[in-house]
Amino acid sequence: MAGRNNGNSNTLVVPQANAALQQMKYEAAQELGIQIPQDGYYGNFSTRDAGSLGGYITRKLVQIAEQQLSGSSQFR
Q1: How far apart, in Å, are the Cα atoms of 58 and each of 6, 7, 22?
Q2: What is the pLDDT of residues 10-67, one digit of tens each?
Q3: Torsion sign, CA atoms 29, 38, 40, 23
Q4: Residue 53: exposed, middle, or buried by beta-carbon count in 10 A (0-12, 13-18, 19+)?
Q5: To the nearest 10°, the Cα dihedral for 44, 49, 51, 53?
Q6: Cα distances (Å, whole numbers) of residue 43 to 40, 50, 70, 73
Q7: Which of 18, 23, 53, 69 is the most buried (most CB within 10 A)?
């Protein structure tokens, strides 16, 4: 099937963006009061926290894209 990535939906289009996304995840978690597992194991991470974190990051990324499209260089 064309366009498929073998079931891994977490493949980054720009692998170099990984560090920035990780930083954004930790900043978002801090703002939301969510504790990120230090050992990297998310098996005990609540669905609610994962959803809150993912939604926050998505909103932030959309906001950044909208600002870039409008010509604004201010990221908040």
Answers
A1: 23, 21, 13
A2: 777 888 888 888 899 999 999 999 998 888 888 888 999 999 999 999 999 999 999 9
A3: positive
A4: buried
A5: -120
A6: 9, 11, 40, 38
A7: 53
What type of residue sits at position 36? I
Residue 54: Cβ within 10 Å count: 12
Q: What is the pTM of this model?
A: 0.68
Instruction: Give the total residue count for the chain.
Output: 76
The C-alpha atoms of residue 15 and residue 53 are separated, in whole angstroms, by: 21
